């Protein structure tokens, strides 16, 4: 079964639903590890640094965004890791998933910002096209 | 050491060379526009961008960060150039470098933590507003064609990047619109109307100013403002690059490096510069990570000027103004509006005050200093709120003290006691309080003595260890003989 699952999360409603599905899949195998990947894109990075008083607060504010997802995984007593990465969300997720040879990528169909999606194209679409493993898109 | 050196320079050669070229292309319009803001020839900003980038590639503490002539610095130097001329600007640039090195030696980067984010947000927003205001004379009320060119420039810089990612859109706008302007007989002001371009490398010279105390008193206020603003923007930029790349950097080395770069720049006829948020973001986005990217940006910029100098003077001013409007929009922190609603009122006031003072004085350093002082006052006001609540416990009267007791809060502390009480057992509980200084201890003395005067017995309890020590050392209240002796 699936042993390594990459859960792409940004704290949105969609990513929480994606987390629920990831837990369902993961529960099939006791040894399965879920890695929550949160991508901070470059433009966001600038304003987040500006709005945080120091590095500690910056990290805290990002962990807070994943709080709901983390809670969900904890309540199912599932082992997970959190990985905060930087870059353009689509390509960064694909590169990481391929490099670390994940068995499955779970991602919400739409993130926080629909305007951005219109301009830049959807992240989930990019991941489906270029990831080497199965991708589960959650509506 | 060599291992680290190799890694910082040559671990990402392909990415660094390509991103360095992209940055050089993006730097040209900004360096010219910032020169015009400072009231100097475009060459002064271009030379500065060249020397800043090349020197900081070696001396900086944050690999991959881009330093050059910047708007924040250009805005500060305009009055100096107007009143005293170019040589005083070069001298001020040298002195800025010296001050920054001193800041670096005394590890001033640590002090960055004391600058509240409300002030930093205000700084960034004020910078954007000032750069925008500096563009207004270049496109308002000149001619219809001027408006048209500004509009076309904006369309190009926002639409073209959706299709062409390899060449910076501002450069495309410049090339296309300069050609259109040359071949279409349109009457537009150009860069050449505001200054000249020399197609040569910068040369070493000592600024031609009298070495007197008077000179120093002219340039010093400018240099100190330049040094503060330069370091502020550089350290903010390095935090952003740290975060974007997920790596650490040496902030004190960066402060020193900025100083060295400004000294070299002053000797080679450039204006003071610092790190650039926008260009550094472009560099990281384009794949630049190492020192090589900064170095290539500087070298390639100079190469372009030598080759293309003739064309640079033909760039229409409205195109440059349009590009600067884009820079302002990119610089402004748009999340400030939600910040104003969500942040504590005092933070919002500090942010707005910082912006207003900068816009009124055209001096970023004044806004920052005022913002820091204002937020310190707010902070003191906030923590000087002290609460004393009265309750009765078995025939004893207990006063619970809650808050920090120090010079700013003693008045409120003394006033919140009820001194009509007579002949009872009073307990003052400091479990939720901390005693900070002499005036705090003095205030406790005052309260205790007042109660004792009206025949009460007073017990102090709940002091934490440090507070207890301070009280033991300074207080006279429990020495009842001393007290009685005074009466």
From TrEMBL, chain A:
- Its domain of life reads Bacteria
Indicate the family of this protein.
Answer: Belongs to the universal stress protein A family.
Source species of the chain:
Peribacillus asahii
Pfam families in alphabetical order: Usp
Name of the protein in question: Universal stress protein
Q: Which residues form the UspA domain?
A: 1-139
TrEMBL record, chain B:
Membrane protein topology class: Multi-pass membrane protein
Annotated compartments: Membrane
UniProt-listed Pfam families: STAS, Sulfate_transp
Q: What is a GO molecular function of this protein?
A: secondary active sulfate transmembrane transporter activity
Q: What is this protein called?
A: SulP family inorganic anion transporter
Q: Which Gene3D superfamilies match?
A: STAS domain
**PANTHER family the record matches:** SULFATE TRANSPORTER YBAR-RELATED (PTHR43310)
Can you supply one Gene Ontology CC term for this chain's record? membrane
